[in-house]
Amino acid sequence: MDTVHLPSRSGSFVTAAAARARAAGATLRRLVAFTLISLGTLVTKAGRSPQVMRPLMTEQVFRVGVKLVPIVCFLGITLGIVIVGQTVTVLQTVGAVKFTGMLLVTVVIRELAPLVAGLVVLARVGTASVIELATARALGEVEALEALGIDPIHYLVVPRVIGFTVAVATLTAHFVLLALVSGYAFAFARGLPLTLTGYFGDIATALSWADFPLLALKTSLFGAVTGMIICYQGLSQALRLEEVGGATTRTVAQCVVGCLCIDALFVPVYLLL
Amino acid sequence: MSDDAVIEMSGVAVANPHGSDVPLVASVDWRVARGECWVVAGQQGSGKTTVIETAAGLRPALRGEVRLFGEPLPSPSGEAMARLRQRVGFVFEGAGRLFPNLGVAENIALPLRYHRHLTAAESAAELRPLMEAFQLERFANLAPGRIGRAWARRAGLARAMASRPELVLLDNPLEGLDPVHLRWWRGFLAELVHGHPWLGGKPATVVIATDELRPLLGIGTRFATVDGGRWKVLGDREAVSASDDPAVRELMDERN
Question: Cβ of B76 under 8 Å from any chain A Cβ?
Fold first, then answer.
């Protein structure tokens, strides 16, 4: 009996996997189309209606960026102690202190900080934004904007994407600074023979000039992709109230996958530095 | 297609808002001339709202042609459509679909601030007569959720009127109103049809969707019904009063 069922089970698994892959492909195509439309709106309507748009953008930067500074600072300090402090201690113990700068630049500045900032923004504001946009769509606010001759992409999407982009980039800078300082403070408190100038000198030496624009680009992409996926999931289709939870879960999964894919694209670039 | 036509729909199949391919209303042939006040009556769920939303370019038609102000409807997301929509005021059913993140005054000023780049002070000054006429000054700084449904609907009307539209479409404006609000709305609609001061005393072109004909019988100049997926033009007041169509008699059964 088993030998009869096994091929059909594997067959159904393949069919299900293929269907899943097709659905993922279709979602990706729609997301790309939504992104292109949004980018078109961003470019063609740049500077339009400043009296309305500037406060909206400021509000989003405040909501996504400024309000998250305390939590990012807390994470920067704690992860600085946990990761940087321990790493420096271990390197000191095994006599590999000369690799401190290189290791911290690779782990903290290039990888950990952008991911932490992106995930904090996603968790604290992103999920709420999906619910907010899906509710606005369900209650007919998108049609109300259209009836007033206001482009919903311009009014709802552009400020959010700009807010997320600016927020992830600036929060990353906060995180890097606090993680490195708290890591040094932990190492210093443990009595390690490491001077402040020596510690930051090692990091500065390991940093390449290209690290600055690359970090800005990477964090901006994290923010932009997160913002775009949030707006797509919230607005692309009319959701019933019971579907909003599913859209939020999908948003988290897609944002994490999107950010990791961008991260992977940067690896070969960093290896060339 | 004459010059004074504001809305023209020919052979329009109105799409079902829930996504079905079967048209909600099969074939709409309708012409609204400048200065007319049309009352489109139908039971709840008959498709009257979707008909007027299609006429306003808020929903695509499944087939047929829709023209506004003598021109075919442009692409929904283009600049031409945005300009066209500034000539049309649409008042939504219920609480007017105000934006909850803005105050009442900010909601009303939004189209002026977005399209004409007015500052908050400039738009407030310009809209003061409208706010006074609509008795909304005391709610100006409140969030839409903190005012009653009838006042929110009135604020939705003020928002639609802010840009001084040539065509005003109202979806079930008299639904569930208390006598005081009902009297105000009927007075406003009569003034709108004959020439409201806010619009410079010029009669507006008005379309009202309703599920009760009688309260609007003295206001409308032309009447139509949507019943069982069919569009039917009734004609003027006398034609409605004289109609022995059971659907029309049912819609005339006043409850207010």
Answer: yes
Return d(Cα A65, Cα A58) in angstroms, integer.
Answer: 10
Q: Nearest 5°: phi and psi at A254?
A: -70, -35
Would you give the distance in Å from CA A62 to the centre of its chain?
17
Q: Is B110 on the interface with A (CB under 8 A)?
A: yes
What percent of chain A is predicted at pLDDT more than 70? 96
Q: Judged by CB atoms within 8 Å, which residues 77-106 of B form the interface with A?
A: 77, 81-86, 88, 90, 92, 97-99
Do the Cβ atoms of A150 and B114 come closer than 8 Å?
yes
Contacts of A159 in chain B (CB under 8 A): none
What is the pLDDT confidence band of residue B18, given thresholds at 50, 70 and 90?
confident
Cβ–Cβ under 8 Å, residues B25 and B4: no
| pLDDT (mean) for A154-175 | 96
Report the Cα–Cα distance between both ends of chain A, in Å, rounded: 59
By C-alpha distance, the chain B residue nearest A41 is B77
Q: Residue B227 belongs to what H/E stretch?
A: strand B222-227
pLDDT in tens, A98-148: 888 899 999 999 999 999 999 999 999 999 999 999 989 988 999 999 999
CA nearest B194: which of B186, B207, B184, B204?
A: B204
| Nearest residue on chain B to A240, alpha-carbon basis | B18
Overall pTM > 0.90: no
Burial of A70 (0-12, 13-18, 19+ CB in 10 A): exposed
Lowest mean pLDDT among A1-10, A65-74, B94-103: A1-10
Chain A nearest-CA distance from B83, in A, is: 7
pLDDT in tens, B59-76: 999 999 999 999 999 888
- Using alpha carbons only, what angle is made at residue A159 by residues A153 and A162, rounded to the nearest 5 degrees? 115
Q: To which H or E segment does residue A220 belong?
A: helix A211-235
Closest-CA residue to B173 (of B96, B97, B85): B96
| Strand boundaries in B34-135, DSSP class E | 37-42, 61-68, 71-72, 88-91
**What is the rounded average pLDDT for all residues in chain B?**
91
B56 lies within 8 A of chain A by CB: yes
Beta-carbon count within 10 A of B241 CB: 13
B160 part of contact set with chain A, CB < 8 Å: yes
Contact B206, B170 (CB under 8 A): yes
3-state SS class at A111: helix
Is the Cβ pair A144, B119 closer than 8 Å? no
Sheet containing B37-42: order of strands: B88-91, B167-171, B205-210, B37-42, B222-227, B230-235
User: How much is the ipTM here?
Assistant: 0.91
